[in-house]
Amino acid sequence: MTSNDVKPEWPLWEIFIRSQHGLAHKHVGSLHAVDGASAIHHARDVYTRRNEGVSIWAVRAADIVASSPGDKEALFDPAQSKVYRHPTFFPTPDGVKNL
Amino acid sequence: MYAQLVETGAKAVKTLDQMEPQERAFQERINAGIKTEPKDWMPEAYRKTLVRQISQHAHSEYVGMLPEANWITRAPTLKRKAILLAKVQDEAGHALYLYSAVETLGVTRDQTYLDLLSGKAKYSSIFNYPTLTWADIGAIGWLVDGSAIVNQIPLCRCSYGPYARAMVRVCKEESFHQRQGFDIMQALCKGTPEQKAMAQDALNRWWWPSLAMHGPPDELSANSAQSMAWKIKQNSNDELRQRFIDQTAPQIEFLGLALPDADLKWNEARGHYDYGAIDWEEFFNVVNGKGPCNQERLAARNQAWEEGAWFREAMSAYAAKQEQSDMQGAT
């Protein structure tokens, strides 16, 4: 074969790592791998070379459903007017503690 | 820098008034410091410029493994060998973060590789120089990675989210590279006269290519002006080069090595070091394929791709078979 033959690529996986301190898994990047087991193996080599984590999730990129930028207003604008959802909306009288 | 002479397709930078509404809205978001993400609308020229720049950067990391890997089997101690292995492995990681960022712009990974292998895509001029002695490994970490850090720190604020995030990871790891290089130089400078001479020779050979890495002066370049307007690039080439020289000259003196440039002198009035003229003809020759190692580097990468083909195919075949037997087991 020649180097110009393009074979189907290994599937793309998104990698999530949970660090040690009880935080949630966080997206760290992506990589190509033939299956879940090798995706975890590659993720170990690529994303945890300096003790970055104690747990790895690998998710096929094709399986992720994402919101689209066009839906941004419809999805997120309604929250903007609801400032009372933040504690700082409510004035606290002077002298009142533990509120 | 690891991406040099990146073509943006621009002859002149458009003003907001010259832009169509969609492009104008895009530029206003850039001006406001809002990051662009893969699914956001972007001008085709912005996308193409990013593909060129990030892929060139990725190829530089990937090809950059070769000159250093040259010394893994001959590292002077087991400790140095383990450190160098870790460093070269980091470079592979850096290439991967960047190849992933290119992919978010709608180009397949294989296509990006094949553009390197065919010689269509460029990589940094610096990796076309040979590593002749162990001191070169010190000089690369100290000077080449030092130059790269100066260039990459502003890229952490680049307007394209996936590139900026990749650079944050890279920068975290890059300091180790620079320090291990300086540590090698320091050990040689404290050693025998022959070892110190080896360090001096490596400094003399790597100094000018490290300065050229930042690319030619770009004040008059429409490409640079456009990249800066898009906030892909934040500083001019000369600015970054000066920053690198200012931080490195005192380190040369600390090591007790002779300055590699007779014109390298502190200029009190400017508050910077002055330096001699850079040989841009050599730089363009190396970029255009006439450096000492261009053919060797590309041949090594093509060989790795071709000799790894059976493995990629075997892995795919194995995964397909597993999937099939899983499905049979489920029924």
Descriptive notes:
The complex is a heterodimer of chains A (99) and B (331). In chain A, 21% of the residues lie in helices and 20% in strands. Chain A has 2 helices and 3 strands. By secondary structure, chain B is mainly alpha-helical. Helix content of chain B is 65%, strand content 2%. Chain B has a two-stranded antiparallel ribbon. The chains are: A alpha+beta (99), B mainly alpha (331). At the A-B interface, strand 2 and helix 1 of A face helix 4, helix 5, helix 7, helix 12 and helix 13 of B.
The coarse silhouette of chain A is elongated
Please give the order of strands in the largest beta sheet of chain A.
2-1-3
| Low confidence ranges of chain B | none
The beta-strand count of chain A equals 3
* Largest interface by Cβ-Cβ < 8 Å: A-B, 24 and 35 residues
Helicity level of chain B = 55-70%
Task: Give a short synopsis of this structure.
The complex is a heterodimer of chains A (99) and B (331). Chain A is α+β, with helices and mostly antiparallel strands and 99 residues long. Chain A has helices at residues 36-47, 72-80; strands spanning 12-18, 26-32, 55-60.
